[in-house]
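Q: Focus on the shape:
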Amino acid sequence: YCCIMTNEPQNQTAPIPGQNRTSAYRGKAATNPYIFTKKTVWMQRVGDGVRAGAELYIQGSTRLEKVAFLVAKFAARYKVNLSRRTDLQARKSGETVTRWLGYLDDKTGMVNWVLLCWPGEDLDRSELWRPVHEQRIRHSGYELVRITKPGAKAPVLTWRYEKPQFEKIHDQIVQVIRLRQGAILDQIIHSLHRSPGFAGVRQQVKKLWDITRKEWRRTRGESEQVPEIPKNIGYVRRLPDVGALWSELIKKTP
């Protein structure tokens, strides 16, 4: 059976207002970039960049030991991860600025990254840039999209499961209920409860839990009690930066 993409527990404490106002990745030397070590935090920062007006992006995955060379290569061509003030000044002057955001998957040793771009007059058009709002940023079964939440007047930017991943989980739920594989169903319910609580994901998880209840009643009838399903999943609040400089992470590499 497929694995459901989950994140770290959602009960992290939100930072105190005014604390950590300067993002940890800003102003660091390209030869020693800051790398996030929690996927949910990284996803949040990628969303921040798109919300702040990034129009283009490049995406990839690189082994940790090669990351410093990669970011230095980008920095030789673009202004990367400037301080907040310098970034704004460069954009006002019509220059291209970029934001490199990477996170280390400690299970694979790979750094998954996105280079966001605010194009200026000096944009290198030979780069294989993708338009943010035409080709969605995707990672590990999730995609960054604009959706309209119930009761909202305007769309919001959020992460959700990609359609194939959502359908895979849906089919898995139906199959294990029909095959009476209760232990696997409990595992799916637990994994869904640990999904990153972005608005788009929350909507999908609610649908999957509704599907679980309906399929259970259709297959098992009213005589068998539906497994316990949580009422909701936690919201992703504003998370503090969690990560380290490349030089610190490389020391810990076996």
